[in-house]
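Entry 12.
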Amino acid sequence: MGLIAWIIIGLIAGAVAKSLMPGKDPGGLVITMLIGIAGGLLGGWLGKVIFGVESVDGFFELSTWITAIIGSVIVLALHRAVTGNRHSHRHV
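Predicted 3D structure (tokens):
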């Protein structure tokens, strides 16, 4: 898959992850896209390691989207754990 395909998958997977995990998140479109791309890579790697399958087969494969979304949820949870408390103490 090319760079444009990864950006599109990242944007959509990041948006789905944010909708599955409601709450306030710092960052906008770029952060969502980066979380999605990182999640796609993480999900693909986990699918390969845990299940022994090539989970990133192509843009239109269901396995690509599922692993990207699961990985994005994991990356978003880690992002919130690292940056979540920094933004809540501004208005003291």
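Annotation: The helical segments are 3-20, 29-51, 62-83. The mean pLDDT is 76.
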